[in-house]
Amino acid sequence: MKKYTKTLLPVRRRGWTFIELLVTIVILAIATLYVAPQASSGASASGQSATRLAVTEILAAQMDAVALQEFRRIKFFADGSGWCVEVLQSSQLNTPYNAATAEYADDALESQGHNQKSVIDFSQDTRFTNVSISSPLFDGANTSIIFDQTGGVIAPDGSPSTGGSFEVKSGDHAWQVLLAPLTGKVTVSKVGSP
User: Fold this and answer.
1) Domain range holding 136?
2) Residue 150: which of 92, 68, 84, 86 has the closest Cα?
3) Residue 33: is it exposed, middle or buried by C-beta count within 10 angstroms (0-12/13-18/19+)?
4) Which is more confident, 114 or 67?
């Protein structure tokens, strides 16, 4: 007697089943509802970017003070449009900021056309539309951060700093940047999130 064996041929599919297609569409719809508003929040993205830039500039000024054995002052502009980093002598610590006579630190990457000097002006940079700096307050009365040659934070009279903070605002979003006394350690936290 002859044995018959069945040979199964592989099944070739030419597309998705209705269930697979339906599940994929539902997953994409849920992802769109959750991710799209988060990703499209331009105010949030530009605010985060400006906050990272501020922290980077603070740390760069601190490292420059140590590496070059010079004083560095980060001056926040009164209108909230940004900041600049100045090179100071010990006799200039208490001297008020003067844009006409300031000696700006070098910054080849973020100079925004300011002759490679460290000046950040949000009003001249399309990446930071509607971004502003608010409430810069250090040592109870100053709107500037000063680093000495050891990288420590000092007050304008040369005494150890009591620290301070400022906020980066963009639309309904805000980030608080805290500067610790003495060490200048930087901490960022989101505040007022919608």
Assistant:
1) 43-191
2) 68
3) exposed
4) 67
Is residue 20 in some structural domain?
no
Q: How many domains does the chain have?
A: 1
Inside any domain, residue 35: no
Q: What is the largest CA-CA distance in the chain?
A: 112
| Domain assignment of residue 33, yes or no | no
Q: In what order do the strands lie in the sheet containing 82-88? A: 119-121, 82-88, 71-76, 144-147, 153-154
Residues 112, 3: Cα–Cα separation, whole Å: 85
Residue 12 lies in a domain: no
The CA distance from 69 to 148, in Å, is 8
pLDDT tens digit sequence for 106-150: 875 654 555 678 888 888 888 787 899 999 999 988 999 999 999
The CATH number of residue 85's host domain is: 3.55.40.10
CA dihedral 12, 15, 21, 24 (to 10 degrees): 80
Q: Which residues of 44-83 are buried (b: 16+ CB within 10 A; e: fewer)?
A: bebbbebbebbbebbebbbebbeeeebbbbbbbbeebbbb
